[in-house]
Amino acid sequence: MIGFRFLPPAERVVIAPLLQSYAGEMRPLLRGSEPADGHAAAAMLCADPRTEVLLCERDGAPAGFAILFDLPEVVFARRCGMLDDLYVHPEHRRRGIARAMLDHLAGEGRRRRWSHLRWIVPAGDQDAIRLYEQVAERAGWLSFVIRLDAEASL
């Protein structure tokens, strides 16, 4: 059984092992830098009240997470959702969990009256892109970045 819940800051430490696994999978994109330890990343999330963390549990065990922000969208004077990270642990993949998390977030966004939910994805992540093209449309925006610390930026 799959369940979702938003984690209050004090409980975000439960995703430390998932954060560690996620960082390991992202390592090839890091240009030689070492990712943070999962516990250090969880501590940062525990200390940041602006961040929201959705936990996905499968049969009571942490299976994935989404990290997001509720932001102002000034063109329409509304709010929007910005999904920063979405991760499903490898042993829980191919069971519809990522799609279910996106559906859950879309429902939450409708409840909050967001104008949209947006996210970025690394261009080479073909599995994620295939899913995202099934549930969303490509935005008409390009993504740019100013790398302020090349050792700590994807």
Explain what the structure shows.
Keywords: Acyltransferase, Transferase. The chain has 154 residues and is an alpha+beta fold. It is built from four helices and five strands. The chain has helices spanning 16-26, 38-46, 97-112, 126-135, and strands at 2-6, 52-58, 61-73, 78-88, 114-119. It has a five-stranded mixed β-sheet, with helices on one face. Helix 3 links the parallel strand 4 (78-88) and strand 5. Helix 1 crosses helix 2 (38-46).
Please write out the topology:
Layout: E1 2-6, H1 16-26, H2 38-46, E2 52-58, E3 61-73, E4 78-88, H3 97-112, E5 114-119, H4 126-135
Parallel strand pairs: 4-5
Antiparallel strand pairs: 1-2, 2-3, 3-4
Keywords: Acyltransferase, Transferase
Domain N-acetyltransferase: 13-151
Protein name: GNAT family N-acetyltransferase
Unreliably modeled segments: none
Helix percentage range: 25-40%
Largest sheet, in brief, is: 5 strands, mixed
Number of strands: 5
Structural class: alpha+beta
Rg over alpha carbons: 16 Å
Strand order of the largest sheet: 1-2-3-4-5
Percentage of residues in DSSP E strands: 25-35%
Q: Mean pLDDT across all residues, rounded?
A: 90
Number of helices: 4
Bulk shape: globular
N to C succession of SSEs: EHHEEEHEH
Rounded to the nearest angstrom, the distance between the terminal CA atoms is 34 Å
